[in-house]
Design goal:
Blueprint (H helix, E strand, L loop, with lengths): L4 H12 L4 H8 L3 H9 L23 H11 L10 H12 L5 H14 L16 E13 L2 E12 L4 E7 L4 H15 L5 E4 L6 E4 L2 E4 L1 H10 L2 E4 L11 H11 L9
Parallel strand pairs: 1-4, 4-7
Antiparallel strand pairs: 1-2, 2-3, 5-6
InterPro entries: Homeodomain-like_sf
Protein name: Transposase
Length: 261
C-alpha cells in the first residue's frame, strides 16, 4: 500500500529531529520498513502520468489551469484591475483558441471565486527564526528580442538575515517555484526548515482554509525536508518582510531594472 505524501513528509520531519525508527513507526502507524524507506529516499520525482482520454469531459478541459492562474494572480491586484468572467472568456478565445460558449467560463469563475473568498486572519511575525524563508512572485516588464513582455519575478527572502534572491521566469508554475528554490538552495548550500508563501498559486489550490499542494511540490519538500505554510490571500499584513523587499528591490537595483521608455 502506498504511504500518503503527508505521512511521508511526517516521517522525514521526525527523522530529521532524531526520532528513532521504531518510535516514528509507532506514532504514524506505519511499518518500520516504510519509515526506513522514506527517511532514506533521495529521489521523490513523480512519474509522468499517461495521457487519458476522458469521454464527456468538460469543454473547459485544458483551460482550467489557465483560468486559475489568472484568477490567482488577480488576488494580488487592486479589485478594479482584476479579470471579469467576460474578460477571461475573451482572452481564452483570442489567446488560446477556446471555441465553446461563455456560460461554462462564467460558472467556473463564480465557483472559484466563492471557494477562494476568505476573510482576513492572522498577524505578522515581528521576529522570524533562522532557517525560514518567505517566497513570492512580483511582475516586471522587459523587452526580449524586441518584444515587450511581462516577466514573473521570483523573490526568496531570508528575514532573519535580510538576504534576498531574485530570479525571472515566464510564469508562476510549480516547476518555476521548484526550479527557483533549488537554485537558491544550491547557491547557499543549505535548505530552510520552513517556507512561507504569499499564496498557493502554481504549487497548489485552496479548498476552504486548506491548501492542497501539487504532487511535484510535495515531492520537492520531501527531498529537502522542508515544511510550508501559506498566507491568507486577502491579508497582505501576514507576509512580514517579503512585500517590502519586493517593492524596494527595483529602486535599490537600478542596474538590473530600469523604467520602461
Amino acid at each position: 500500500m502506498t504511504v500518503p505524501m503527508s505521512v511521508q513528509e511526517n516521517i522525514r520531519r521526525l527523522d530529521s529531529q532524531g526520532v528513532a525508527v521504531r518510535e516514528i513507526a509507532r506514532r504514524l502507524g506505519v511499518s518500520r520498513a516504510s519509515v526506513a524507506k522514506y527517511a532514506g529516499q533521495e529521489d521523490f520525482s513523480p512519474a509522468l502520468p499517461a495521457p487519458l482520454n476522458r469521454p464527456g469531459a468538460s469543454v473547459l478541459t485544458g483551460f482550467e489551469h489557465i483560468i486559475e492562474g489568472w484568477l490567482g494572480e488577480d488576488l494580488r491586484r487592486n479589485r478594479k484591475q482584476r479579470h471579469t468572467a467576460k474578460r477571461i472568456f475573451d482572452r481564452l478565445v483570442d489567446e488560446h483558441g477556446y471555441t465553446a460558449t461563455y456560460s461554462p467560463v462564467q460558472r467556473f469563475v463564480r465557483k472559484w471565486t466563492v471557494r477562494n473568498r476568505q476573510a482576513g486572519e492572522g498577524f505578522t511575525e515581528l521576529v522570524w527564526p533562522a532557517g525560514t524563508v518567505q517566497v513570492d512572485f512580483g511582475q516586471a516588464e522587459a523587452i526580449i528580442a524586441g518584444i515587450r513582455q511581462v516577466l514573473h519575478i521570483f523573490v526568496v527572502t531570508f528575514p532573519f538575515s535580510n538576504m534576498r534572491f531574485v530570479q525571472a521566469y515566464r510564469g508562476e508554475t510549480a516547476e518555476c517555484v521548484c526550479h527557483g528554490l533549488r537554485a537558491v538552495f544550491e547557491h547557499i548550500r543549505a535548505a530552510p526548515r520552513h517556507m512561507v508563501f504569499d499564496n498557493a498559486t502554481g504549487i497548489g489550490r485552496r479548498v476552504g482554509t486548506t491548501v492542497v499542494e501539487t504532487r511535484l511540490f510535495g515531492a520537492f519538500k520531501l527531498h529537502y525536508r522542508s515544511e510550508s505554510r501559506y498566507c491568507n490571500p486577502y491579508s497582505g499584513h501576514e507576509k512580514g518582510s517579503r512585500p517590502t523587499e519586493w517593492c524596494n528591490f527595483p529602486s535599490s537595483c537600478r542596474s538590473v531594472f530600469l523604467i520602461m521608455p
